[in-house]
């Protein structure tokens, strides 16, 4: 791996490089990773002997989109990437963000930075290429309306994947299909312009840089209704109420946004069911039933 990293670095920065050391780091379930010490500085490397098709190219595109959005959040610069071939594993090289302690205003900076990120917009919902949410393919065809995109490319995609790989009880499938039929009836909030989102924003994908600023890593980026971002943020916790307060002050949220978050969280719970199985399935189908019960009660 040292030789492969050395080659890619030399190609990317245009000068001879010697890799002096690889220091493995943990925390990921898909790839291997290491801090790379070289004669021209330190970098972050990820590699995989059996990669998902195009996974590092898609990650690089997502990081580039986040960085170009104008957000004040730190985003690691992409140094270069290479697909797997007969000479070795797929490889991604990034700017290394040394870990630091969070500044006192970390949460405020995160809330403001997310509002700035979501100000980046496009003419439709989707992205320039399909990518991945974890190890699950994430289709991103450009789509004119958010309900259609979210129904077909997020919830139905996960539902059909679960039916193929996990098997679904008829009642569980029907619970999600009833929700899909009701997505146009206010379950997703009022129409908004497409917003660039990180797409997989749990606390493990927020990093504190050496000077204590928030940084985003490992995106599953696309243009969405911005409440889709918040739905993932509440799934596992890890974000203080202050983050949401500051976000809403910087970029006002629609009334009732908290009540709508379960319909956005559902995508990620279904994804976790497809990835890991277990109790995520029961959680997803009960969530779908509860969303529809609340919707019917509110009418």
As a whole number of angstroms, the C-alpha radius of gyration is: 20 Å
Contiguous helical run count: 10
Low-confidence stretches: none
Give the helix/strand class. Answer: alpha+beta
What is the CATH superfamily of the largest domain?
Aminoglycoside phosphotransferase (APH), C-terminal lobe
Oligomer: single chain
Tell me how many strands there are. Answer: 11
**What is the CATH topology of the largest domain?**
Aminoglycoside 3'-phosphotransferase, Chain: A, domain 2
CATH class descriptor name of the largest domain: Alpha Beta
- Average per-residue pLDDT, rounded, comes to 94
Strand-residue fraction? 15-25%
Overall geometry comes to: globular
Any overview of this molecule?
- The strands form four sheets. A five-stranded antiparallel sheet has the order 1-2-3-5-4. A two-stranded antiparallel sheet has the order 6-7.
- The chain has ten helices and eleven strands.
- The model has no long low-confidence stretch (mean pLDDT 94).
- The chain has 299 residues and is an alpha+beta fold.
- A hairpin with a 5-residue loop joins strand 9 and strand 10.
- Helix 5 packs across helix 10.
- It has two domains: 94 residues, Phosphorylase Kinase, domain 1, CATH 3.30.200.20; 193 residues, Alpha-Beta Complex (Aminoglycoside 3'-phosphotransferase, Chain: A, domain 2).
- It is globular, with a radius of gyration of 20 Å.
């Amino acid at each position: 791996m040292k030789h492969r990293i050395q080659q890619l670095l030399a190609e990317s920065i245009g000068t001879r490089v010697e890799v002096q050391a690889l220091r493995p780091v943990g925390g990921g379930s898909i790839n291997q990773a290491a801090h790379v010490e070289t004669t021209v500085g330190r970098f972050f490397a990820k590699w995989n002997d059996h990669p998902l098709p195009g996974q590092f190219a898609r990650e690089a595109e997502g990081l580039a989109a986040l960085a170009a959005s104008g957000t004040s959040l730190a985003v690691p610069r992409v140094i270069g990437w290479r697909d797997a071939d007969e000479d070795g594993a797929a490889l991604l090289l990034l700017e290394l963000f040394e870990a630091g302690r969070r500044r006192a205003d970390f949460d405020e900076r995160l809330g403001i930075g997310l509002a700035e990120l979501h100000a980046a917009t496009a003419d439709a919902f989707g992205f320039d290429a399909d990518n991945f949410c974890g190890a699950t393919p994430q289709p991103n065809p450009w789509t004119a309306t958010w309900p259609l995109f979210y129904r077909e490319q997020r919830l139905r995609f996960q539902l059909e994947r679960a039916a193929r790989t996990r098997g679904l009880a008829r009642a569980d499938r029907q619970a999600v299909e009833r929700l899909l039929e009701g997505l146009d009836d206010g379950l997703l909030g009022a129409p908004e312009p497409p917003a660039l989102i990180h797409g997989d924003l749990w606390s493990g994908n927020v990093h504190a840089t050496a000077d204590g600023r928030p940084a985003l890593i490992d995106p599953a980026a696309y243009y969405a209704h911005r409440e889709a971002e918040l739905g993932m943020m509440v799934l596992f916790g890890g974000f203080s109420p202050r983050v949401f307060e500051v976000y809403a002050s910087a970029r006002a949220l629609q009334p009732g946004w908290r009540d709508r978050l379960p319909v956005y969280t559902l995508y990620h719970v279904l994804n976790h069911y497809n990835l890991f199985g277990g109790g995520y399935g029961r959680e997803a189908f009960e969530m779908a039933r509860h969303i529809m019960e609340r919707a019917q009660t509110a009418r």
